[in-house]
UniProtKB/TrEMBL annotation:
GO CC, alphabetical: cytoplasm
Protein name from the UniProt record: NADPH-dependent 7-cyano-7-deazaguanine reductase
Active site residues per record: 50, 57
UniProt organism field: Qipengyuania citrea
Family annotation (InterPro entries): GTP-CH-I_C/QueF, NADPH_dep_7-cyano-7-deazaG_red, QueF, QueF_type1
EC numbers for this chain: 1.7.1.13
Location(s), subcellular: Cytoplasm
Similarity comment text for this entry: Belongs to the GTP cyclohydrolase I family. QueF type 1 subfamily.
Length: 152
């Protein structure tokens, strides 16, 4: 038997946290410690609320990271991202805040987040943050999300 605690949310019926502050991210040991590799999470239907109007904002988030000692458990990440549905925040604050929280808590070798926001007031806003320069030998594929071009 392993001394590693089981993931907190995996396999459990779990309610969506009321806010990002209440959301608990769960980290598990990196199964490939010492290997340089990249993990990508895509959340193509991310939502939060405009802090001025309270109307919903929609984004396609792409989170890439090179794990250190731990990896983020995907269900806890899904619950964390879902907790933004009733959270008011500007695109910049939401995108950078998600990246910084993951980086601060998980302590990966490197992390980047791309927030590809759909237009608000006729202007799409894309927000990008990374923790620093990526490791030299890390393969970094393009995030694969085109800039917003409307209907054609």
């Amino acid at each position: 038997m392993s001394d590693t605690p089981a993931p907190k949310f995996l396999g459990a019926n779990t309610a969506l946290p009321a806010s990002p502050e209440e959301a608990e991210l769960d980290y598990v040991p990196n199964p490939r410690t010492g290997q340089l590799y990249m993990v990508r999470f895509a959340a193509p239907e991310f939502t939060s609320l405009c802090p001025v109007t309270g109307q919903p904002d929609f984004a396609h988030l792409v989170i890439d990271y090179a794990p250190g000692e731990t990896i983020v458990e995907s269900k806890s990440l899904k619950l964390f991202l879902g907790s933004f549905r009733n959270h008011c925040g500007f695109h910049e604050d939401v995108t950078v805040g998600i990246g910084q929280r993951l980086f601060d808590e998980m302590q990966p070798q490197w992390l980047r987040i791309g927030g590809y926001w759909y237009p608000r007031g006729g202007i799409p806003i894309d927000v990008f943050w990374q923790s620093g320069a990526p490791p030299a030998a890390l393969w970094l594929p393009d995030q694969g999300v085109s800039s917003y071009r409307g209907r054609g």
